[in-house]
Write a structure and sequence with these properties.
- This protein is an alpha/beta fold.
- The chain contains 10 helices and 10 strands.
- The strands form 2 sheets. Strands 6-7-8-3-9-10 form a 6-stranded mixed beta sheet, sandwiched between helices.
- Helix 3 packs parallel to helix 6.
- The two termini are about 35 Å apart.
Length: about 240
């Protein structure tokens, strides 16, 4: 399969401090690729730059053969790239369904089929479709954030720390959902602190340290790597 996303020489600075220091990475179409690393490694910054939320200092980002840099966030979403941000960021004073409809704001045609598809993936959201999003549990809000991202019919779904703050049972549920999304043909780029869970489902993985890629390999290989075990998997 071809690469859906290619990043070359990406440099991103915040106030003179380089958060991302010339990284290269590729995401193969139809695969789950994960970025792991400690806080401050540049993982979330990379996702935000792809999504058009952060402007890089230099480098290139190509999606399906076309450059993304210089495009607005709306243009990037319309191209087929969506980001589920860290912290979920649902609209608390809107209902579940209103939140989902916001995910389809660029779409002109009927979204009923898409709502049904999201509700089939997340039956709990269907049960709470008229409930205010702010009253949902943390796990339900994460499901809503993922469902909202799917409403734009993306080709690439980027998830930033989807398991953050969730109980272990819900973490397993969220990762099962990521596998389901991927099985439906979506390419997934995952940033995750839970390295064990991320590497267990990833086809390919990159390890970032202070803005640089220090290792890359199929997820199962990195699970067995002694250095990765010691640094990120508790030995």
């Amino acid at each position: 399969m071809s690469n859906i996303l290619e990043i070359k020489g990406l440099v991103v600075s915040y106030g003179g401090i380089e958060a991302v220091k010339g990284i290269d990475l590729t995401v193969e179409q139809g695969k789950i690729v994960t970025l792991i690393g400690s806080n401050g490694a540049g993982k979330s910054t990379t996702l935000k730059t792809i999504a058009g939320l952060v402007k890089p200092k230099s480098g290139s980002i190509t999606f399906q053969g076309e450059p993304l840099l210089g495009k607005s966030t709306d243009q990037i979403v319309s191209r087929g790239v969506t980001l589920v941000p860290e912290g979920r960021r649902v609209f608390p004073n809107l209902t579940v369904e209103e939140n989902l409809r916001i995910g389809a704001y660029l779409r002109k045609e009927s979204i009923r089929d898409d709502l049904d598809r999201v509700y089939a993936l997340f039956p709990r959201l269907k049960e709470r479709e008229w409930q205010m999003a702010g009253t949902l549990s943390g796990g339900e809000q994460q499901m809503l954030a993922v469902g909202r991202a799917l409403m734009s019919r993306p080709d690439l779904v980027m998830l930033d720390e989807p398991s953050l703050g969730l109980a272990p049972l819900l973490v397993r549920e969220i990762f099962d959902i990521i596998l389901k999304i991927n099985a439906e043909g979506k390419t997934v780029l995952l940033v995750e602190q839970n390295a064990l869970a991320a590497l267990s489902i990833a086809h390919y993985a990159y390890v970032l340290e202070v803005g640089r890629v220090v290792a890359e390999a199929p997820g199962q290989e990195l699970l067995k790597d002694p250095k990765v075990k010691e640094a990120y998997l508790g030995g």
